Amino acid sequence: MISKRVGFPRWRWWMFVPILLLLVISAGYGVTRSALLDIDRIEIVGADQRVSEATVVEISGIAIGQPLIDLNLSAVETRLFSIPWVSEARVSRDWPGTVHLRIFLRTAHAIGVDPSGSQALLDQEGVVLEKVERSISTNTALPRIRVDAFGVPGTRVSGIDPLLRAASAIPSDLAAWIVALAPIGEGVRAELVGGAEANLGFSDDYHEQARALSTVLTRVTLTCLREVDVSVPSNPVVRRSNC
What's the predicted TM-score (pTM) here? Predict the structure, then answer.
């Protein structure tokens, strides 16, 4: 007599597949929320005395112990970019529990001076990096440029491109002669120590004007000097006052 083996109908196994998948997904999600995959280390590259590691961590909003999977990389980069000194920020995660923060800092290019005498560090694009006390700014070799006004750190001073180009062309030895660079028409005027002025004119590159001015100041008699015009570098003109 042939007996029929009683077993669980094969088709009924498929009823358990969604349940098994749900269990696997739930287990995987639980792991991402566990201490196995939380943030246990934050590595920072690029911080220094201008932007400390503590500041980077604070602004990033990242906390040790939070789930690594929840980290919004682009949001963290945006927060870091809000630091005035930071020109670029890159954030990445390294499983199972490390976050890498890399920042690139701007360089102070000049000191902006407004009509009230307030001063601020500016980068080569005119971005305000931080406000500085006059006593501190006098101890730096950075050239000074006169601006109508500057906003809070992180904002950009507009309309000063010629001044910034001139500042980048001034070597340290010539900077000792210059009190400040100021706009004149569409060009640039250098206010010299002693009250004289130098007309640098307008240029896309002020290196030739800077060399011409250095030559004039080191080779001519400075008595009664009123103005040096190096707007045409190959033909500098010296004007004197009656004194």
Answer: 0.80
